[in-house]
Design goal:
single chain, about 110 residues, alpha+beta, OB fold (Dihydrolipoamide Acetyltransferase, E2P), 2 domains, signal, Chemokine_IL8-like_dom, secreted
Length: about 110
């Protein structure tokens, strides 16, 4: 009887440890403050959006720049310009690829 209680207690402790690790690792990936530096659009490789609806405390645009992540205030004009610029560059890149594909199909 005592060994069953000990096993149950050990299993419960292991479960709680795993749960606390999962919860803490989720919040560890959140932006906690914004950069003060404006990023040039051409440095931005991609971006993602963080909202307060998850476990994060602030809304943010997370720019992916040369293997690192930079958190920016989504209400700032420069942040909006950088996102728009990045999207326009992607559209231009896609149009260029489509034009090349059409040209190759003609040959």
């Amino acid at each position: 009887m005592e060994s069953n209680k000990a096993r149950l207690f050990a299993a419960l402790c292991a479960f709680l440890i795993v749960c606390s690790f999962v919860c803490s690792s989720d919040s560890a990936s959140c932006c906690t403050r914004y950069t003060k530096k404006k990023l040039p659009c051409l440095l931005v490789k991609n971006y993602s959006i963080q909202t307060i609806h998850g476990s994060c405390d602030i809304n943010a645009i997370i720019f992916h720049v040369n293997g690192r992540f930079v958190c920016a205030d989504p209400t700032k004009a420069w942040t909006k310009r950088a996102v728009t610029c990045h999207i326009l560059l992607l559209v231009k890149e896609t149009e260029t690829e489509e034009a090349r594909s059409r040209e190759n199909n003609r040959l």
